[in-house]
Amino acid sequence: MGRSPCCEKAHTNKGAWTKEEDDRLIAYIKANGEGCWRSLPKAAGLLRCGKSCRLRWINYLRPDLKRGNFSQEEDDLIIKLHSLLGNKWSLIAGRLPGRTDNEIKNYWNTHIRRKLLQRGIDPSTHRPMRTRAEEKCPDLNLELRMSPPRHLDARSPPQEKCLDCRLGSHGDGGGKDCR
DNA sequence: AAAGGGCTCAACCGCAAGGAC
DNA sequence: GGTCCTTGCGGTTGAGCCCTT
Predict the structure, then answer these.
(1) Residue A40 is part of a domain; what is its CATH number?
(2) Which residues constitute the domain of residue A85?
(3) A164 in any annotated domain
(4) Is residue A5 part of a domain?
(5) What's this model's pTM, rounded to 2 decimal places?
(6) What's the CA dihedral at A137, A140, A145, A149 to 10 degrees?
(7) Residue A114 counted as domain residue
(8) Nearest nt (C1') to A61 (CA)?
(9) Consecutive 10-residue runs of chain A (179 residues): their mean pLDDT?
(10) How far from A3 is each of A6, A7, A39, CA to CA, in Å?
């Protein structure tokens, strides 16, 4: 049988949102707040599925969105966060007030990724890319451990700092550990 | 001015997580 | 504990814009 569709597709609009749809969604959320996305379209008189409404609100209509170009600081922070978190766009977005995961994901794929490649840095590993010679003769001395060697080496204590510590972004100014 | 190729970004899709029953 | 339902996330797509020829 498979999954039931998230909405009655035959009766929903798809594609770009109209001004009227935006207005309806904004008016409804202002009056009732963000709530049950599944029932929202019907209640708001929209021929959209709940997912689509949620996405439109979060990525485009929310009043606290910043929009516009990314600053150099935001740029650097995204790179830093991506090196720590990987493609966890929602977590990265959580650290950038007024930015959405979709926006950051797009910005990464269109701008930052290319910038890193131009600098010879692999965007997925954040390490210098291998040369052609290295590509041809891969290092066979592979590291086969599946997880980082935690607590095995008493000389190098495990990394248990919180993300703010690792980023050096604690608001208290001194780069203090919060452990 | 027109064509076409590249780029951007809003929106969609499928899946997984988590809560309710 | 199992199933269903809803939400949230990440990857991908495609329409429209921009730039180059």
Answers:
(1) 1.10.10
(2) 72-128
(3) no
(4) no
(5) 0.75
(6) -80
(7) yes
(8) B10
(9) 44 84 91 86 90 91 86 90 91 91 92 84 80 52 40 42 62 45
(10) 9, 11, 19
